Amino acid sequence: MWPPAVLCGMMMTACDVSAIAKPWEVQHKTAKLVADEFFEQGDLERLQLNEQPMAMMDREKKDELPKMQVGFIEVICLPLYKALSESFPWVKPLLDGCRRNLEQWKRLAEQVDMGLTWIDHEFIEKPVERNKLEVISKITLNPKPPAPPGNFPSPPK
């Protein structure tokens, strides 16, 4: 049996990445939303810091995402769910869902290799240049900075 601290970390990670084990339609949509968020972060790094973002945050490498998903599932998710399901049989449906989605991502990766792209989400398809104003506007036009931790606004009177 795993030490309690390790088991706790494994369970937290399993919960964090659980979208990878959900039905394909949910998993694919979630992956698009996460990619959208990562691409925004990569755009900020490129525009504000003049840095090359890591591949998973680089909109210019969006067609590599299916392969990255395959790697993520094979290296992180499958070993995690396999280890947990050996101790807790009720985790096996997550392992099975993860395996099914791995096959879907592999198929998409093959399609990309044949010259097709995997993403049809409009925002992700936009090139970086078209996002510059949107990204900068979100940062510079935010009229109210976030409240410091522990300071809560007074209730309305």
Overview of this protein structure:
This is PDEase domain-containing protein. InterPro entries: PDEase (IPR023088), PDEase_catalytic_dom (IPR002073), PDEase_catalytic_dom_sf (IPR036971). GO terms for molecular function: 3',5'-cyclic-nucleotide phosphodiesterase activity; metal ion binding. The chain is 64% helix and 0% strand. The chain has 6 helices and no strands. The N and C termini lie far apart (56 Å). The model is unreliable at 121-133, 145-149 and 151-155 (pLDDT under 50).
Any key phrases for this structure?
6 helices; mainly alpha; 157 residues; PDEase; 64% helix; disordered C terminus; PDEase_catalytic_dom_sf
A few lines on this structure:
It holds the Pfam family PDEase_I. 64% of the residues lie in helices and 0% in strands. By secondary structure, it is an all-alpha fold.
